[in-house]
Inverse folding.
């Protein structure tokens, strides 16, 4: 049909199929600021304004939009300087989103800005509640909504012509910043949650700064993200925002049954369909076994996957690939592929997997073992670690506590789905443009699968719309790549949201048993954990994720006195294959699975032994100067080497967190636990102490190159992959600090395997630490060349004799001790055009011998309805030692977003399967992630320590917020109503069932 659309005041005439969605029509016209996140109207990424009102364009027919005015992000503001042309500049909302750190991956940002614009046009002075209600229709998996909400309020203030607080009003907190008994942000006078923050636009966290940072100009400052401006404008920065002439659309036929052999497969009818360019089955491509886990070489896990196999192992496994001229034709072709399955018995219960008669999932002869994997026993990995003399430790104990806990399968749920485009370039090299956390691993691991040498593959990583570990997987790139090889044409493949739930990766669900021996005074004498981990149908990340469950969580408590010098710790795990979709990497990487049991267990022990829960924990916790007990026992399947903890701010985290949440006024205070006029409600407060790691020692490497331009700007090329975390920005800040220039002068590019130096990619919370150290090394090389040239220029001009190392680089100047100076742009010009011409540039890389852990205290306050079991989390507070904070805005964004994901893990997220292995959760309607209007108060306190192994003293920040929310909430629920929940998520039904058994009195007395 013919259609006339009015988009951003421009008229468009187009010929489309009547069933075409408005989303598809808009993107086909080049409005790439409108994003695809689902097909069912639930994520809001596709929001546009129709006659000024937000609508989800994915479920709105283009034909319905005729006669209406459509507004997309492309219309609302742009860079004020367009060459000689001046524009009106950015909309206040765009500016406020950039300034407030409201943009992480930026995939939801255009939709949030448009939704907010509609609100502000209606309500110029909205309340925070109004904003949260308005943003509720746009899911954000990165931010925790705090900064987007504050950005909208800030924009409203600006639009009304009122003064807004400067964003960079950093609030360094002196050691006594929090003192008990004061009312603090987010609390009323009585210390109860619910009061508004003192200023509606405050987005900065509290930072207790280290003295080392005082003289720095760029590191430690809340610089805006270097990619924020383009993301606020909805520029075509993502993988899917890319067009090529003749591009085909790929689709995958997924298995409807959990375990079967493919007896017969016939693609002839599909191939005969007009518009189908290729259909591939297992018979058509080379049979190459590999691992989809994006990890350094050699992959620390079994090789057990094929692009296509003659067997399927879970509902959603791959059966065939199709490439066609359009999505509709590709979908029709899938229906025409005839498959006969020979159903096989399934393993759906992890504890059945190791039984002697259990069906074997991996009987392929090509299977390659790693470590203790044994496919004949459905064992993807096995871990047996004994530190000290665990049995003796238990013999010496006065008390032994033993309990079992459970953690569910949950999903990363990044709003941008997995997406990749492949094509042959003019040199017959295969280009893979993909939303990946691991471009270099993808190139290396795909080479044998595609039968191409590494040098004939180029992987390009554009902006990533969230990953959280889900894109540390070589999950879909092989599909379009095989189809490009088969057809010679560019191929586009993007997961639907249903495919994300059925056929991507998730957190490993585990059943964990803990046994702890203690002296009567609360000294831990021995601590033992056994984990049964379900890796699903394939063993990607099986060993390393589950190893980290022990390596990070079981390290925290070493015991006290002689036990502190020689702790007794055991960690055993079996990682088994089942006919569930594979698990993989998910932010936290096995550690949240360890801390739910550990911190619930510590709470039970403290309460049963009548010990103060915080004093008991700190008495036994690891301290600065001590040996990381697992460092000599295990290192992700490689040789372990001893590591000393050189920085640990855990005690200060407890002290500041405790004061900020008014712990002493609430814990064990019967009055605080009751709410006047709400006899059915009980308040509770809980805590969890946690630690993580920073990178993988002696293995993962980051690289960087820096090139100076003639205007004194620098190109910083990194292989590191910013998946929304702000890593490009913090890397630029470090380079700017060394080179003495504003962040604006550092032009960051990441990443392209042809142009950027190698980097292992974004995982293990390593980018600021590993890639950052590589950037610092590189910048120092460049700074040295600049100083040499500056000294030459200044000495010649002023007849002085200064040495290069006497020259300071600051404020775009090279300054000699006598005050004479030369600008960076003069140095750049001089180097490229005037004398002894040279390209000033440097390359550097870094691999760390240590993985210094960040530490944190996480607190939660809840209200439990003891009639219904409903748990409302009122407040989450995290006091964290992540070393020096390079950028408090981006770092606190990581904490807020991480706590929000962890909150879902605690109370509502779970992927469930029926008796045939079919997923129950296939969309955001059934898999609930937190929305803007459902959020508790979030508060972040950074307790800086200076980690001496890094030039700027940094440690990891991205993963640790995932670790302690669930146990803190679980402990708070117990504190509220004595309900012990040992399996997350803590659903109302679970709480209600325990309450029903307890027959809780609703009497306020
Ligand atoms: S893409 Fe339209 S609501 Fe998700
Ligand atoms: S910033 Fe909202 S989804 Fe990433």
């Amino acid at each position: 049909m013919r259609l006339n659309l009015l988009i951003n005041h421009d008229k468009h005439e187009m010929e489309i199929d009547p069933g075409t969605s408005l989303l598809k029509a808009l993107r086909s016209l080049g409005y790439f600021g409108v994003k695809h996140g689902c097909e069912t109207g639930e994520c809001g990424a596709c929001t546009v304004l129709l006659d000024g009102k937000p609508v989800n364009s994915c479920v709105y027919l283009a034909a319905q939009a005729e006669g209406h005015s459509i507004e997309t992000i492309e219309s609302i503001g742009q860079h004020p300087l367009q060459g000689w042309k001046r524009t009106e500049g950015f909309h206040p909302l765009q500016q406020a989103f950039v300034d407030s750190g409201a943009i992480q991956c930026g995939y939801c940002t255009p939709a949030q800005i448009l939704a907010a614009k509609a609100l502000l046009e209606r309500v110029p002075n909205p309340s925070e509640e109004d904003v949260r209600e308005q943003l509720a229709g746009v899911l954000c998996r990165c931010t925790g909504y705090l900064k987007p909400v504050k950005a909208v309020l800030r924009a409203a203030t600006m639009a009304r012509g009122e003064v807004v607080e400067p964003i960079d009003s950093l609030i360094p907190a002196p050691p006594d910043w929090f003192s008990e008994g004061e009312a603090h942000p987010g609390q009323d006078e009585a210390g109860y949650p619910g009061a508004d923050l003192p200023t509606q636009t405050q987005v900065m966290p509290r930072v207790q700064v280290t003295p080392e940072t005082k003289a720095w100009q760029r590191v430690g400052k809340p610089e805006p993200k270097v990619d924020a401006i383009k993301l606020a404008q909805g520029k075509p920065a993502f993988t899917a925002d890319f067009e090529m002439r003749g591009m085909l659309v790929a689709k995958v036929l997924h298995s409807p049954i959990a375990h079967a052999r493919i007896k017969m497969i016939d693609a002839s009818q599909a191939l005969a369909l007009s518009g189908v360019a290729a259909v591939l089955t297992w018979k058509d491509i080379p049979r190459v076994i590999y691992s989809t886990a994006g990890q350094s070489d050699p992959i620390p896990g079994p090789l057990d996957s094929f692009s296509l196999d003659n067997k399927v192992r879970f509902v959603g496994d791959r059966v065939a690939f199709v490439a066609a001229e359009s999505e509709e034709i590709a979908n029709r072709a899938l229906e025409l592929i005839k498959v006969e399955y020979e159903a096989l018995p399934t393993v759906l219960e992890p504890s059945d997997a190791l039984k002697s008669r259990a069906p074997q999932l991996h009987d392929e002869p090509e299977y390659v073992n790693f470590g203790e994997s044994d496919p004949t026993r459905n064992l993807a990995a096995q871990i047996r670690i004994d530190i000290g003399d665990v049995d003796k430790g238990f013999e010496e104990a006065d008390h032994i506590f033993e309990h079992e806990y459970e953690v569910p399968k949950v999903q990363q749920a990044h709003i941008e789905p997995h997406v990749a485009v492949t094509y042959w370039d003019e040199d017959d090299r295969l280009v893979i443009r993909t939303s990946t956390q691991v471009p270099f691993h993808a190139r290396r691991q795909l080479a044998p699968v595609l039968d191409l040498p590494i040098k004939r593959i180029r992987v390009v990583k554009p902006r990533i719309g969230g990953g959280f570990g889900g894109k540390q997987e070589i999950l879909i790139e092989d599909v379009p790549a095989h189809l490009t090889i088969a057809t010679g044409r560019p191929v586009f493949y993007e997961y639907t949201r249903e495919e994300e739930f059925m056929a991507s990766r998730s957190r490993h669900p585990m059943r964990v048993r803990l046994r702890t021996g203690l002296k009567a005074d609360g000294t831990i004498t021995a601590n033992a954990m056994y984990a049964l981990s379900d890796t699903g149908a394939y063993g990607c990340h099986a060993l390393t994720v589950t190893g980290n469950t022990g390596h990070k969580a079981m390290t925290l408590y070493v015991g006290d006195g002689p036990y502190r010098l020689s702790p007794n710790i055991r960690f055993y795990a079996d990682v088994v294959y089942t006919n569930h979709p594979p698990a993989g990497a998910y932010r936290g990487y096995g550690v949240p699975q360890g801390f739910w049991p550990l911190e619930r267990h510590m709470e039970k022990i403290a309460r049963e032994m009548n010990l103060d829960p915080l004093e008991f924990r700190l008495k036994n916790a690891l301290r600065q100067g001590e040996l990381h007990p697992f460092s000599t026992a295990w290192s992700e399947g490689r040789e372990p080497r001893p590591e000393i903890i050189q920085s640990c701010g855990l005690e200060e985290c407890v002290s500041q967190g405790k004061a900020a949440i008014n712990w002493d006024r609430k814990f064990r205070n019967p009055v605080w636990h009751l709410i006047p006029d709400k006899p059915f409600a009980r308040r509770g407060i809980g805590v969890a102490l946690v630690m993580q790691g920073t990178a993988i020692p002696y293995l993962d490497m980051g690289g960087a190159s820096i090139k100076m331009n003639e205007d004194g700007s620098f190109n910083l090329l990194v292989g590191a992959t910013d998946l929304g975390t702000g890593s490009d920005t913090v890397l630029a800040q470090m380079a700017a600090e060394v080179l003495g220039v504003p962040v604006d002068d550092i032009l960051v590019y990441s990443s392209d395997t042809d142009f950027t130096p190698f980097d292992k990619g974004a995982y293990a919370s390593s980018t600021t630490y590993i890639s950052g150290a590589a950037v610092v090394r590189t910048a120092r090389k460049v700074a040295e060349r600049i100083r040499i040239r500056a000294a030459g220029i200044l000495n010649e001009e002023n007849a002085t004799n200064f040495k290069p190392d006497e020259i300071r680089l600051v404020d775009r100047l090279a300054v000699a001790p006598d005050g004479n100076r030369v600008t960076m742009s003069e140095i750049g010009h001089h180097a490229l055009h005037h004398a002894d011409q040279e390209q000033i540039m440097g390359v550097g890389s870094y691999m760390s011998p240590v993985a210094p852990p960040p530490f944190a205290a996480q607190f939660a306050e809840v209200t439990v309805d003891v009639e219904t079991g409903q748990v409302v989390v009122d407040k989450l507070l995290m006091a964290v030692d992540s070393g020096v904070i390079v950028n408090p805005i981006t770092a606190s964004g990581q904490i807020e977003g991480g706590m929000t994901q962890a909150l879902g893990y605690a109370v509502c997220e779970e992927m469930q399967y029926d008796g045939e292995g079919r997923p129950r959760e296939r969309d955001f309607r059934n898999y609930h992630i937190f929305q803007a209007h459902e959020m508790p108060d979030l508060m972040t306190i950074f307790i800086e320590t200076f980690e001496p192994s890094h030039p700027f003293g940094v440690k990891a920040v991205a993963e640790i917020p995932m670790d302690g929310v669930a146990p803190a909430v679980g402990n708070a629920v117990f504190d509220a109503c004595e309900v012990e929940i040992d399996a997350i998520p803590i659903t109302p039904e679970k709480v209600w069932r325990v309450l029903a058994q307890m027959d809780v009195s609703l009497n306020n007395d």
In short: The pocket of FE2/S2 (inorganic) cluster (ligand 1) is lined by residues 36-38, 41-46, 56, 58 (CB under 6 Å). The chain has 26 helices and 35 strands.
